[in-house]
Design a protein that fits this description.
Layout: H1 2-13, H2 15-29, H3 39-58, H4 68-90, H5 92-95, H6 97-102, H7 109-135, H8 147-171, H9 175-188, H10 202-208, H11 212-226, H12 232-256
């Protein structure tokens, strides 16, 4: 908890540095790109289009009576944020070793800025999501005001995972490669383009409910498709998984950060 408090205080003290690192990431990502930031809007839509065609026409998947495009894009939007943010966070400390050798910078700033940078892109991807929601007639309701809760839980979980991966990658470079495989398995274990009812096994469905990404995506889908607030249990489960991962990742990063210099 003390480490998390230090992060909160550093957000004010190092806000200029954080802003510069995020700005640098934007410039690097969209350098020499004709469409630039528009790719943040087009990428999830193009991905949705391909997956929608493959799984609705080839594998005949569905969203259990709801609009499949909205069902699919909601899952893609959440998972893409987690995937990109954790991948960038994982190599963030290693990539900034030269900067750490020159000036004092709190090491946790690097995973944090990656999660914030991808978070800006995530906010942009909400524009095509809501465009699809409106165009398909899914509709809006007051319950959409609760969606930021799911976004904050996703951010906290991702940041905790980012701390964990960033520290682990310094000591074991194989993590950079192993995580790609693990992320692929995680993607297929999360109902992005298939419905949990397809399992036909109550125990398997309950086991899948332990997947934090499924909790956040399910929270958002409930609001979008029913127009009502999720259950108190859903609120609690999302907060618990996000809080535990953030505490675990922060504790591991804090314990190992003083040893980074010996392994870079």
């Amino acid at each position: 908890m003390r480490f998390l408090k230090q992060i909160r205080l550093s957000l004010e003290k190092y806000r200029f540095l954080i802003a510069q690192l995020i700005s640098r990431d934007f410039k690097v990502k969209y350098k020499r790109s004709a469409l630039g930031v528009l790719w943040s809007l087009l990428y999830p839509v193009l991905t949705m289009s391909v997956l929608a065609f493959v799984f609705s026409h080839v594998f005949h998947a569905s969203g259990s009576g709801v609009n499949f495009l909205v069902y699919l894009l909601t899952g893609i939007t959440f998972f893409n944020y987690f995937s990109e943010a954790t991948n960038l966070s994982m190599s963030s400390v290693l990539a900034n070793f030269s900067l750490l050798n020159k000036v004092y910078v709190p090491k946790y700033v690097f995973p944090l800025t990656k999660c914030l940078f991808v978070g800006v892109n995530f906010l942009l991807t909400l524009l095509p999501l809501y465009a699809v929601i409106l165009l398909t007639g899914t509709g809006l309701s007051w319950a959409h005001l609760l969606l930021p809760y799911a976004y904050l839980c996703l951010f906290a979980f991702t940041l905790g995972m980012g701390f964990l991966l960033a520290a682990a990658a310094v000591f074991v470079r194989d993590v950079l490669y192993i995580y790609g495989v693990a992320l692929t398995l995680w993607m297929y274990a999360t109902p992005l383009f298939w419905d949990v009812s397809m399992l036909g096994d109550p125990f398997a469905e309950r086991l899948l409910g332990l997947n934090p990404l499924f909790q956040y995506i399910g929270f958002a889908r409930h609001i979008i498709f029913t127009g009502t607030a999720p259950s108190a249990e859903s609120f609690a489960r999302c907060a618990l998984s996000a809080g535990l991962m953030l505490l675990l990742g922060a504790a591991f990063f804090r314990e190992k950060q003083d040893s980074f210099v010996y392994y870079m």
